[in-house]
Structures are given as C-alpha cells and as structure tokens.
Design brief:
By secondary structure, this protein is an alpha/beta fold. It has 14 helices and seven strands. The chain has a seven-stranded parallel β-sheet. Strand 4, helix 10 and strand 5 form a beta-alpha-beta unit.
Length: 356
C-alpha cells in the first residue's frame, strides 16, 4: 500500500481533538509530534519507524509513534479512524441511542455491603428505568470498610436473591454477581466454588493503588486471565472529584478526595482482556469517569468489549448510565461493543463461557 503523510495525519488528529474540545495536553501531544517529524527527512522517519525508535525523538510518544507507523504502512491510523467515525455525528443522539440499547446494569451495590438501600428497592428502581436485569455486585471479604461479604454471607445472599426474583415483575430479574477484589498477586478475593456459582463477576483493584507499573500490570493481567472474572471494573481506580454534593448511599470509598489513576501498561492489560474475551468497564460515576477517554479508545483499538455500568450504591444512581454512554459515544463505542446491550441469557452464557 502507498504510504500516507504521517505529519498530515497527526495534524488532522490534533484538529479533530481541538474541535471536540478535548484536553489540551492531548492536542499538544499530536502537534508536538508533527512538529518534530517536520524537521526530519522522510527517509529518516521511515527508518525510525522500521527500527521502532520513533519514541526516542523529543515529542513523540507511543501513541503518536503508532499513528506514524500506520500512516507509513498506507493505513489510516486507528486513532484517526475512531475520531472520524464520530465526525458529523450528533454526540447527544449517539449517547441517547447507546443508553436506549442498554438492557441492564452489571455493577450494582446494596445495603448488604456499602450500598444505601435494600436489594428489593434497587431492583424496583431498575424496573422503573426500563431495565430487564441488574447484576448485584456487592463487595468481597477483604474490603472490610465496605462490609464485604464473607463466603457465608454471600451464600445467604444467593438464597435471598432467588426469593426476591420470585416476587419481581415478569420480564425482570436480578443476576447474581460480586465486585471481587483483585488481590496483590492477581488472585480474586473469593473461593472458586462460589465464584463459579455467580452469573457475572466484576473484578476491581481497591488496594495498593500506588503499586509500581510493572507490579500493577502483572496483577491486572493475572486477574483478567482468571476464568471466573468477566468484567474489569473501574480499571485505573482514579477519582476526578470528591463525591458529588447531595449524593447519598455512595459508600465509604466513594467519599474519597481526588485520586490519581494507577500506573499500568494499558496496552498489555487491554490485550489480555481482548485475548480472554473479558469486558472493560466504563464506570459512569461522575467522580470516577474511569477509564479516561484515551484508555477507552485504546481498549476499543485493542478489540475489547465494554460494560457501561453505574456502580450504583443508591436507587437514583441507577440512572447515571447516561454519563458513561456520553463518554463511550465520544470515543466511538457503539452498542455492538457493549455486553449489557445483550439479553440476560446471552450475558450469562458469555460469562459462563469463561469458566468453561
């Protein structure tokens, strides 16, 4: 294929980011890379791309180097293609269409752990929102500050959910689940026997968020490879703001001050998610906005599936999915990429397939 102009592609990406009112540092990354390459001969740029030494140049990072390599190969850079996919599209309309396609929520808490309302109340609120299901994902034992469920309490909860389901309106059901802690060595904080009984397992890092990059990457990749994990919850653990004023039932860990994201090799983690067919959560909580948009795009480029969840700790928070849909639509995510656009039976079969 005939090579494209990598400098023109970098400048086009910067223009589209500016028009979308994206963060200035992201725009600067592409403009700086374009300026650096403009001072080199085309042969040197091509040689560096072949030798994978573009990142040795000032102003050229891994993402921009990948774009240049794709351009020189005659391919439209994936980053540019994703931006162009949303060009001319009404983002409010795209977000609304994505929200309308969602059939349920895969990350919901109750007062069995750190939520503010009973399971029944959360379920009835989900019914009123038009959901077909919700996955109940209270915390696992190690998160004592959130009253994580011991194995005995989780077994009692499974019996309770069965009884509640029998009394709920036809066409809606609670799917059993857990938000299981990803431990320091990548193991999951619950017995394999119990995890195997659950419909959907969300795995999240809640401790050691300042672990070094290599350790955190190993930890997350190991968890993703575990056949019992289905969805990687709020991948970076960041908090972009304090808990919104007036929000109740958010749980102790959601009252945290702002917190930087954990450092890990996102490409390696998302490659593992794609390899094992695990979903990356787009967490809709306003104070989380996790993962950041650049990581959503990276996961999309890696071929990952997504789950757009609320991480709700109170009934009204179940309507927060629209926030996740807005961020997902901005990154070019469509309903085809999202597991909770599926009917409950398909979602359960997909999750069960990981264990098989």
């Amino acid at each position: 294929m005939e090579a494209r102009d990598p400098i023109a592609d970098l400048r086009r990406i910067a223009f589209l980011l500016e028009r979308a009112n994206e963060a200035s540092y992201r725009v600067k990354a592409f403009r700086s890379a374009a300026a650096t390459l403009a001072g080199l001969s085309g042969d040197e740029v091509a040689q560096r791309a072949d030798a994978r030494t573009l990142t040795e140049l000032t102003g050229v990072g891994e993402v921009t180097a990948r774009c240049v390599t794709e351009s020189l190969a005659g391919e439209e850079p994936v980053y540019l293609r994703r931006l162009l996919a949303t060009e001319g599209v009404s983002l409010p309309d795209a977000a609304a269409a994505l929200r309308a396609a969602l059939r349920g929520d895969c990350h919901v808490h109750s007062d069995w752990s750190d939520g503010g309302s009973p399971i029944e109340e959360m379920a009835l609120a989900a019914v009123e929102l038009g959901h077909e299901y919700m996955v109940l994902t209270d915390h696992s034992p190690r998160l004592t500050v959130a009253r994580g469920l011991t194995a005995a309490r989780l077994r009692r909860q499974l019996d309770h959910v069965a009884a509640v389901n029998a009394a709920l309106p036809a066409g809606f059901r609670i799917l059993t689940g857990i938000e299981v802690d990803i431990l320091a060595d990548g193991r999951l904080d619950q017995s394999d026997e119990l995890l195997a009984r659950l419909d959907v397992v969300v795995g999240s890092v809640h401790s050691g968020l300042n672990d070094d990059r290599a350790k955190m990457t190993r930890r997350m990749v190991a968890a993703v490879a575990n056949p019992h994990l289905d969805i990687l919850g709020h991948p970076t653990g960041r908090m972009v703001s304090s808990r919104p004023a007036g929000v109740t039932g958010a749980g102790p860990r959601h009252r945290a001050r702002t917190r930087p994201p954990s450092d890990f090799d996102a490409e390696a983690v998302f490659a593992a998610c794609a390899e094992h067919d695990k979903a990356v959560e787009i967490n809709s909580r306003p104070e989380r906005q996790d993962p950041p948009k650049r990581m959503i795009r990276l996961a999309l480029e890696a071929g990952c599936r997504f789950a757009i969840d609320t991480d709700a700790h109170a009934p009204g928070q179940l309507d927060w999915q629209v926030y996740g849909c807005e961020r997902a639509a901005l990154c070019g995510v469509t309903g085809e990429d999202v597991v909770n656009t599926w009917p409950a039976d398909r979602l359960r079969d997909w999750a069960a397939g990981h264990s098989r």
